[in-house]
Amino acid sequence: MPYLLSTYKLKKAWGSRNMIVTTQKTLEEIMRYLEPYTNILIVGCGTCATEVQTGGEKQVEEMADKLRGRWFVDTMMIEAPCDERLARRDWRKIKALGKNIDALLILGCGAGVQTLSDVVELPCFPGLETHFLGKVERIGLYYERCKACGNCYLGETAGICPVTRCAKGLMNGPCGGMMDGKCEVGGYVRDCAWALIWKRLKKQGRMELFRKIRSPKQFGLQAYPRGIDAIPSHMKIKSSPLLGPSETVEIIVKAVRESRNHGKPAK
Length: 267
Hints:
By secondary structure, the chain is an alpha/beta fold. It has two domains: about 10-155, Rossmann fold, CATH 3.40.50; about 220-265, no CATH class. It contains nine helices and six strands. The protein has helices at about 10-15, 25-35, 50, 55-65, 85-95, 110-120, 160-165, 195-205, 245-260; strands at about 20-25, 40-45, 70-80, 105, 125, 130. Strands 3-2-4-5 form a four-stranded parallel beta sheet, with helices on both faces. The chain has a two-stranded antiparallel ribbon with strand order 1-6. Strand 4, helix 6 (about 110-120) and strand 5 (about 125) form a beta-alpha-beta unit. Helix 5 crosses helix 6.
């Protein structure tokens, strides 16, 4: 039986709010991440991923059914994997059960993957793509951990996002300004993201991923505001058209030309 936490109290406490929108990664990519391991714990999110139906109890069980037979699979739900207090609390309960776990598959946003990576010290892999963030108002201290780029590399970077945590967004190791594991941006106060990635990959015995060459992120092709049309085709609901990156770039170029031409239509 899966270890499940009730999400009702949390939903009631949080009330109506914006959220983090996610979609599931392809099964092929997920299976590639899990290939070296035997015992997998699938973790679902009781808040945003449950609301958008990508990482709730139903989706966790569906994913478990797809993986069983090739892996030994157990499941659990955490009310909010991005909340370190809740993640630590529930992980202690799992450890107390004496379960044999080699790696975690997280059906939650990038912030949840990174939070659990800090807590459990086991390989944590994203089962979802994080696309964009809503606003949640609360008095407290917060740190940015996910840019919601829609192209998640956390499975290769030990649960530490270089797009967000590297001041330059570098995808292939630290820059020449790194010194003693600290970032030059801001006066060597913050940890260098790639120094952190190296330490964690080394601890997990996955150093070969540090040497992998990745293509640069195409930040210019990220169009805002973004949207996902997840309305089933059989439902007669009129939705706003969504523009692809190339279409958005064309519109921006056209607008710039018109502004330079004092409002006259661009050729």
